Amino acid sequence: MINKSKDLYYQLIESLFCTLGLVIFALFIHKSFPLLIVAFLGLFMAAFIINRNIKVLSDIPFIFGMKPLSRSLLLYLIIGLLIGILLGFVFRGRKGYSFLPEKLTYFVFIAAIIGSAEEVVFRGFIQGHLRPLGLTFSILFATLSHTLYKTGLFFSPSSTVEINLIFLAQWTFIVGILLGILKEFSQNVFPALIAHACFDVLVYGDYPEAPWWVW
């Protein structure tokens, strides 16, 4: 019982420091040298924590919530796809854009990779790492972690683009809860990953170049 409690304590501490590292990365990645070093130190800290949980290569799918694809998973993959499309349409409609990008640029691949990586880390590793502490707690913690990271990434006093950080944080949290629940019901990170990647493809698919927040 004592060993189990100790393991849960370490999992919580690891998740906290992983989140801290990613938030530091988000806040400092737009800075110039030498502050830029701080960003990569934060990223290294998060990577170190994740890596220390991987003993052998076969641990990777388990650590990131990547279970083998199955027929039962197909429904959740479709749900994830529909969520991504719906959110993408809402975003583009709110901005006054056409529902679909008129053309896809090279950045669409980078956008999809960034969104997928975020899901693997936050919904896959952090939420999965904290699952033994409870369903609700793991979803809320991972969602808050991702919200802090995303808000930090878009926080830049030197940017000429005005960002409503409160609106961004609210919707990142709300959608994060939805994706966290989707991950739990499917017992797999792929449905949430597809939703996020699809959303990013619709939002950034016709960008001629990477937006300012991309490091």
Keywords:
single chain; 215 residues; mainly alpha
Question: What order do the SSEs take from the amino end to the carboxyl end, as H and E?
Answer: HHHHHHHH
Largest sheet: none
SS field, number of helical segments: 8
Shape by Cα distribution:
globular
Instruction: Tell me the total number of β-strands.
Output: 0
Low-pLDDT stretches are none
Rg over CA atoms = 18 Å
The fraction of residues in strands falls at: under 5%
Structural class: mainly alpha
Note the gap between the termini. Answer: 45 Å
Mean pLDDT: 91
Range of helix content: over 70%
Task: Write up what this structure looks like.
The protein has 215 residues and is mainly alpha-helical. The chain has a domain at 57-204. Helix content is 71%, strand content 0%. It has eight helices and no strands. It has helices at 2-28, 36-51, 59-63, 71-95, 107-129, 135-154, 165-186, 190-204. α1 runs antiparallel to α2 (36-51), α4 (71-95) packs antiparallel against α7 (165-186) and α4 (71-95) runs parallel beside α8. The mean pLDDT is 91.
